[in-house]
Fold each of these.
Amino acid sequence: MEQNNKKSAILISVGDELLIGQTINSNAAWLGEKLLAFGIEVVEMITVGDNKSHMLRVLHESHQRAELVIVTGGLGPTRDDLTALVLGEYFQKNMVFNEEVFSWIKAFKMAQKKPVNELHRKQAYLPEDFIYFRNLAGTAPAMVYRDNGTIFVSLPGVPYEMKSLMNEYVFPWINKKISRKIFLTKTLHTAAVPESEIASILSDFEDNLADGLSLAYLPSLARVKIRINSRAVTEEEAKAALTKAESKIRELLGDMIYGENEDSLEGVVGRLLMEKKQFLGTAESCTGGYIAQMITSVPGASQYFNGSVVAYSNEVKMDLLGVKKTTLINHGAVSEETVVEMVKGICRRLKVENAIAVSGIAGPQGGSPEKPIGMVCLAVGNVENQVVDTVYLNHNRKLNIEKSAFLALNMLRLFLQRP
Amino acid sequence: MEQNNKKSAILISVGDELLIGQTINSNAAWLGEKLLAFGIEVVEMITVGDNKSHMLRVLHESHQRAELVIVTGGLGPTRDDLTALVLGEYFQKNMVFNEEVFSWIKAFKMAQKKPVNELHRKQAYLPEDFIYFRNLAGTAPAMVYRDNGTIFVSLPGVPYEMKSLMNEYVFPWINKKISRKIFLTKTLHTAAVPESEIASILSDFEDNLADGLSLAYLPSLARVKIRINSRAVTEEEAKAALTKAESKIRELLGDMIYGENEDSLEGVVGRLLMEKKQFLGTAESCTGGYIAQMITSVPGASQYFNGSVVAYSNEVKMDLLGVKKTTLINHGAVSEETVVEMVKGICRRLKVENAIAVSGIAGPQGGSPEKPIGMVCLAVGNVENQVVDTVYLNHNRKLNIEKSAFLALNMLRLFLQRP
């Protein structure tokens, strides 16, 4: 074993686009969260430009202080991409043509039926003695190297490439090579209840939490993630405390909770439909297909999802969904009456047992005193029974759409969970 | 004038919530962009936790290298907020009660009809000799201090408080006190061409770039942003060089470029439809509504978008889109023949002049040797003319969907731009 009194991890993000604010550094946040859940604390995050001397300096500084250094970015095929070169120079390694990496690049381009060019060949010139991991979503491989008690990891900056390489190869590889703390977490997801209300329901419970346990609330659009953190000397102790806390929270919050850890609301709705062996269709106005694409983002959605009609105009609402002209005239396209007819219409048209319908004013134009921007009518159900609701949202267009879609899906979840 | 051979700016973000990934650091990106537009280059961004020794170390390092150091965060009233204390210690200043700052805090709380408490009083204990600026959106003031050729700025971490203090006070204050460079950028967006191909087309041009000009490539799913950077002594020179480079790149890349700066592909397609006073509909299988929601994410999309049919089952493809049963039997749902019929069917059904149709295998299941996962058929056009293509993608389900949607929209753009 190498002697090691260094602590924790430092993240280095490379790229001029980060320094000039063209790209927001979401990689660092993702890595911070995942590493913590893995038991490794990030103590510093550094962003530098595509600049050799700056990169060499921060590598040197991080080498002194961290047990794990993760460098993201700078691995592309163009001349502003310097990471491989700089790592080679820093560790005094020759840059050699790596046949295996080049075969991965060729296979990747071939699967896309695209040619391999000189720049791809350049991407295969890499520092000797490093370990390489195959990138299935792009051409730049991940690389790892150990020196003087520090593990260096280099990853492409494209978020989905970086994430998949971390999950597939890097976490398993560093698993036994680095000191980790016993730190378990579990996340419960709630929908449609504000953070303040959840915190107040859990207030007494939180005041009396056992040592080593803590709660964190992570609110986002119409949902709150509750992360339970459990630290202990042994894994068994940490697990027992976590399980006990979880069951108490579930008892207190009931069906406000729709899932845990990696669950998504659309995945949970899919499971409920499969259990019932029933199908779903959506009839969408202001959400413009957003609900359909959420549902179909789940693998295997064709087992319970038949399709959708996005009815952006009144003609389509009448022609394809059978909404009555009198309903549109008397109540308007944004009304509970209209969305109820949309539910019935889509159930008949697609021959499905369950439907979601949404009509609203997403903004930034189109509001009136009686029907302001952000007013959205939501309905779920079938030809016989519907549940309907009207909400008033006050975000921008994009977030009003996302929130409407999420709330509608949550109404369907509760409808499907009814005894 | 103090002697000054330091360069540019360093940003320090303070807060455990950044290191554990609970908050994405959008402040740094905002500051990077605004400072660059102001003529000050950010050369490094550092994030540290609420930890005194780490903060002192990065202050010291930044002091050596930067002309401007901006610290955000750590100014709240709770015990984990250390920035004022640490700055005081670093510059060896006494912490004194600041009557003026306390009067601002009192006025702010009074406007909210909220009481002032002990913690607010603590927020008014601040380092001597600093200059303070009033925060109209919160209780923590901004502070600035000059030492040995470096300007230090401390700002609250709440984004809207930070931004308003920067705009109102800090930019005007540093205006004459710091060396500014002329640095202009422009970003061009290309679609459906790999980074390596673009780089190879621009290779000769890039080899002969004039002094002060540089290019950066920012690839993401099926697109590449090309950022042109132009540095010069005067704004006129920088602008002239930028304009010349842009027109040369546009000449070399032609219609690979779909937009610039803040343009989105869905926005560009919307503008083309409005110019033609025509409507669009989509018929989507594997993209599941993703294209429709992209199009309707643009404000005012109802002026050119009528709706969509998401046909996830063969029945819906036949019933609502008029795809022939024989076509599905002979060629399959994922075939160029099917998507061409989907284009014609949706044009007729929604009475629109333009359509996009997509059918493919997004994965992770459903592939076969002849039709592998990632095979996607795309068609655009109208009842008379269609353009059709088949692509082979090799990402995960989510990205295969997003890339298919983007490529289909880009095909429509090229179709609409045909002379």
Amino acid sequence: MEITTKNFIEKLPEIKATIKEADFFAIDSEFTGISDKNIYPFDSPEDVYLKTTNSISDYIIIQIGLCAFRLQDDKILCKTFNFYIFPGSRINVFTSQGESLKFLAENGFDFNKLFRYGLNYVNTADEEKLRLDLKEKQKYRANLVNSKEENSNEHQIQLANHIPIPEEEQELINGIRERIDNFIKSDEKQFIVENCNGFQRKLVYQILENYQNEISHSSYTDENNKSKGILIEHKRSAEDEQVLEEERIKKEEEQLLLTIGFSLVLQDLSKSKKLIIGHNMLLDVLYLIKQFFKPLPSNYEEFKKFLHKTFPYLIDTKYFCTTHLQLKPQFNSTVLQHIFRTVSKAPFNLPKIESESMEYEYSTDQPKEHEAGYDAYLTGICFLSLMDFIKVNVKEIKQTSKMNKIVNRIFLGRVNDVNYIDISNKEPSVKKDHVFYITFPETWKQSDIFEKFKKYGFIHITWINSWSAFIMLHNRLNALAVIKTIGHTPGFTITTFEQYKQKQQNYRYVSDKRIFTSPNNSKSIIGVSKPIESSPGSKCGTGSSNREETSETHKKEESQKRSSSFIASSKTNNDDEAECTNNKKTKLFHDNDNW
Amino acid sequence: MEITTKNFIEKLPEIKATIKEADFFAIDSEFTGISDKNIYPFDSPEDVYLKTTNSISDYIIIQIGLCAFRLQDDKILCKTFNFYIFPGSRINVFTSQGESLKFLAENGFDFNKLFRYGLNYVNTADEEKLRLDLKEKQKYRANLVNSKEENSNEHQIQLANHIPIPEEEQELINGIRERIDNFIKSDEKQFIVENCNGFQRKLVYQILENYQNEISHSSYTDENNKSKGILIEHKRSAEDEQVLEEERIKKEEEQLLLTIGFSLVLQDLSKSKKLIIGHNMLLDVLYLIKQFFKPLPSNYEEFKKFLHKTFPYLIDTKYFCTTHLQLKPQFNSTVLQHIFRTVSKAPFNLPKIESESMEYEYSTDQPKEHEAGYDAYLTGICFLSLMDFIKVNVKEIKQTSKMNKIVNRIFLGRVNDVNYIDISNKEPSVKKDHVFYITFPETWKQSDIFEKFKKYGFIHITWINSWSAFIMLHNRLNALAVIKTIGHTPGFTITTFEQYKQKQQNYRYVSDKRIFTSPNNSKSIIGVSKPIESSPGSKCGTGSSNREETSETHKKEESQKRSSSFIASSKTNNDDEAECTNNKKTKLFHDNDNW
């Protein structure tokens, strides 16, 4: 079911009940942009986290699918909510990536609905303030009513501050005065003062003060809450004022719920501490925390701690398929849709799932790929099928060693060593002594580098620019020999990765610029960090995603050298549309594939 | 007529012809966000330019209306194009303001159309590169064909770089080999290798090299230019290859036009050097230059020079109505729709305008406010009516002194002295000796300040924070006396604005943060610069725009002091939905009103 501002208030109790009753959830989200991070195959989980948080800019989540599953003895029930999320106020400034919005629009995403009826949200600190403010505002009004007749002092001060009416506005103001005088004597119920500019409105409010015993006034708004003028009515009785005030409070409470919006749902989800399934969920969790809870910590361990506290029980189906010994051999590709295709036939069994009502119905017969609700639903189905295959009951995950190394691990693409973030434990640290930093003459091609390293077996080249690169040996045993035995070639230098890092005393990733700085060569390295990210070379030639191929076709030929030379002589896999999962060595250059 | 990628190629010749034939144009644009600048009433045009350029963030234009008018002896003809503009590639990262997108969506803007079919654009430098790249790419292909048979050296190198086929891919690759062998012997016209991940595609391309005398292959894309697989066909003859190459070149040339996109239109518009009418057009020209030509210069004079070179003949209808002696008394409000309402009745005459065909038809009977095309059309109509009223022929503007001080002046809202940018001349510089910087006890209210200044006549207060403000005297003649005669009050200090600026040695506006820094009190001033902009106080109480009232209602009570105390005892006008135009003194706090 779609949830927007149009039905949020009405459906909120049901959403809350659903979260309460569910056994587990599957989620998915759609963003205004995706991280364009420059991940190296030898990056650690912490490196990936820092690079990603620095590169997700101010992109936001605009749709969240939440699929709640209930496991009963004889059947599995599910309800899917598809939330449109959009902060429609002036202070909400966010970034978008042209390609992402285009991609979503081409896949049927309704942006008109999003911008008109998307749910608001607030972070934890702002929510508290909002609640407090409303309480004070209502208290202030209550006090005002009580003290109105007793104290006319304030009124005197107001009168003293009055703006003299300029000559050119006299006619307008006199007209309005006359209109009010006639209204007071008449049986008319109300009238509206319209078409005034701000200054004129101010003058009108001034004269209204002189009529405060005869008329009541309020600002008149249209259905979009836009001010259209000043509504003038006969003076209301105390009882009428009371009824009006109660209505007003009810409206304000509803408005508060709408302002806190989707955050109310996430809070319940977090408090439930129940299992949440996602597919390739790194960006999902990063955006969730950043947008709805608090800024992403610059400290990796702090991030893990906060994530664990917020969502203490996660499973990433991409990591599950890629890693679990029984599942790994079954999947050529772990793109969500490909997983579904695989689990739809033997040796897998698709679970039989009943939607709780027609409103919540998605069907894999009518795929709505890239709609968050549908993708969440698909993720849940795949997860159930995987669990069925490895013969583990979802309710007994915590009791079985089979899932030990799957729970709370979030998949990391493109990296070679530790390809997950372990939310509840420290990841193993892996030495990088098989990685080298080299510089060479600009005339060198890929084949020159391969020639230079041929005695050490397969290598992977990460080009920095036309005269430097990182080299990663696939056979770590050869690493020790390299520096000693590689021999001298004019214009060629080599250092270990550790030495390289030490040299870069100021080596750091600067906010969302992904810039290396060093006192010695900051300029030249800054100059080239961009091409690595945006050129097809960094995507390993043929492996750029379909979307990239489209937008970057014109660049392909221009960077032939970079593009071709990036293909290492080893088996590499730069799969963003699909990944090889058979061999750890090949897990290079995965992209965020559930797009 | 709507112009999107769907009809751009087809309509481009007609657009170009229309620009060539027109006598003048009216334009309007819609943005993803508007400047949230903190303009002071005593700011100079240069101050406003710098503050605005620093605060427009990376907002972009997403729709441009271009209405071309032809003046004939007996009638006025017009054609309106409504261009959807959207950069759909990965590298295009831009910002949006939630409120702006919501506002446009509520006014019927079709974002789904925008994101799917919006026109691309490139700046001048990129266009040159694109053209060069395509030429080289085509030349490269031509050379390749010529050298194919002569030189198999490259092929040998390619083979040497081949990746060994891993065991787990053998079955797939053998299957594809077999499929190709059968295809070669068959009458089938083609087949497609699908569902491969990136690594697998790479392996497939490798084996295809062995079949290069028997088959031709190309990447197979869907209607959205998305790769779907590898299309295999029987080896094409040289003639077929030639035909195919010609088709390919034609497609590439079309693609190039689509990539340069809307920039092609703007270039023609600029080259035409014809009169362009806009309404409140500061943001329009700033965004136009920034987005389609080059970054906005940090030097004000450089900006004016470039703007004058690019669009040498501009009239801003807002400035026209606000300033022209015959028009000024006629308008209470210079919001575009209000101007139209005024010129729709006596003493004005609406021009009779014929659309050149149904396709270009807008009608004021069916208003489409906030659609750029319609607003451009409306601007053109208002302009013609204004010209009729002051009895100047549009073709003779340059010859009449009546328009001397109107042409090439762009309206500036909210400022008190020079309320325009003069594109072709230096603006007069105005001394600020009637402006003072004061500090005072935090307990002070507005009335304390008024009391302190009462002997100097009307003042305007620009609050900086709860203990400091700028005071502007409306009667400049009183300025000299202030420092000498204001007298001592504990906790109160006063300096002239000039002294204040000198003290702030590091006084500067920092990029889009609008922050003052000073070595002495940077912290406290930074801390308060935000509330001034976003609190209703800065909008002068009742004068915040309708849109603001909605989103900021909850803040109103909390900042009562700030809000009320901001209302100077003088006549102020903080008009964003409409402006007072009768008195220069009142031109404070105008907002971008043609929204």
Amino acid sequence: MKRTEQHACFGGRQEVWQHESTCTGTAMNVAVYLPPLALAGEKCPVLYWLSGLTCNEQNFITKAGAQQYAAQRGIILVAPDTSPRGSDLQGHAVADDEAYDLGQGAGFYVNATQAPWAPHFRMYDYVVEELPALIEAHFPATQVRAISGHSMGGHGALTIALRNPARYRSVSAFAPIVAPSQVPWGQKALRTYLGDDPAAWAQYDAVAMVKAQGREWMGLSAPSNLPILIDQGTDDPFLQEQLRPELLKTACAAAGQPLELRLQPGYDHSYYFIATFIGEHIGWHARILRAGRDESGKV
Amino acid sequence: MKRTEQHACFGGRQEVWQHESTCTGTAMNVAVYLPPLALAGEKCPVLYWLSGLTCNEQNFITKAGAQQYAAQRGIILVAPDTSPRGSDLQGHAVADDEAYDLGQGAGFYVNATQAPWAPHFRMYDYVVEELPALIEAHFPATQVRAISGHSMGGHGALTIALRNPARYRSVSAFAPIVAPSQVPWGQKALRTYLGDDPAAWAQYDAVAMVKAQGREWMGLSAPSNLPILIDQGTDDPFLQEQLRPELLKTACAAAGQPLELRLQPGYDHSYYFIATFIGEHIGWHARILRAGRDESGKV
């Protein structure tokens, strides 16, 4: 791992690292915020942040104002890029893609099975396996993890946590895509990366996953008890067409899956919305990360 | 005035406006944060923020995390662009300038007297006269003002406040250029915009101004009593060559000008540094803006 940036920040340190990823076969950038407690040598729990369409590892660390809360709570923040990048990616369509919602900046946190994407676009494995192993080996991090994200990254956080409830203590999201199988952004990405098989899509669809929990899908025979917190602005221009949080609310209610969905009047899809509520999210995660969660999933 | 952006943010509203400036003869962008108190119809004091080299009206509002503190304290934040812009600016050298430290993005908060800059590069008059008049006419703002800024903008804040102590209750700065006449960035800008006359330079040099206070320069016969707060990171790469805060400290001590200069160990020149301490600056300004200042300039 090579450190490319470091900045003192709220008594801790904001760093950016680059490493050669075995999952994506590319150099990946990842931002790591170390709170004062970690700099003092104490191992801290980790909150992973997955960003949205068009973002890289910079957006969250420069715009969310999250570091102050992580500093107060003793939480390490880890924010990876949203896709592999590079002009040397196999396949002309990958290297030169110009769509904001496909290819570079739009990995959708899946393992692609379709050409030309399959060799590199493996953000699911990257976030679930490779990145935590790297973080826990190179930084003063415990194996106590939470995950959050925005929009496409909210989709990533929800699906990754629901598929791996033993690996994360809590999951939250800002304006997530909850049902990619049912909305234009998600349908375009899932068809391109995974082909036309509905079963493949369902592996990466939070609403489909919650609905399937009661049917012992993916080995889950009961609600995960994983606590979920979602904030959604009511003035978000993507709310009706792309995000549709009510689909997740209905599915969770039917499945007995804990969910706190908060509609925030007047807020939009921007980092001004994230900045306003990220302190509450980090506080919520910190209480769970540092206290454990009870059997009901309530905190 | 035309509103080009608005976002709910910490219970208030972050807006960006565009207007035709009579000072610069161009369209100018200005960011305005209205705290909840202002949205409720109460007039609030205003903190003006002047950004540094290469910045426009976006940097401060997206990266500093200042809105939360302004929301708590009931302060309006106003952050203008750092120069006139546009391909139609008179003079080839202005329109096509490529230097990061001259021309567009680098107005240095002076009224240029030299060709081809003089017709448009009038950021001093813009910030001192036109902008406050506009803000106080169009927003729920009182005439109680403070001013702050970063680097080139710290230079702007200090020189503008020292020349107009009756117009501002307090001034603060992050890593300001305190003596532009003595450092490369400042010398290049002052020579280009003002020509070679040292007396012209001294009008835009905080250290020169403080030194001159005791000599009845510019009508000031005594220290201004204007409270000054400065934060400076010790790991700032520009500290020794461009910033040199010790020159201001010495001048203020000799002149009896109040100054609190804080060296912050390990911090650099970035917005991570600003974000860490902007809450303390806004709290400091707010106490002065809402309480007035005593005769000694102490707060």
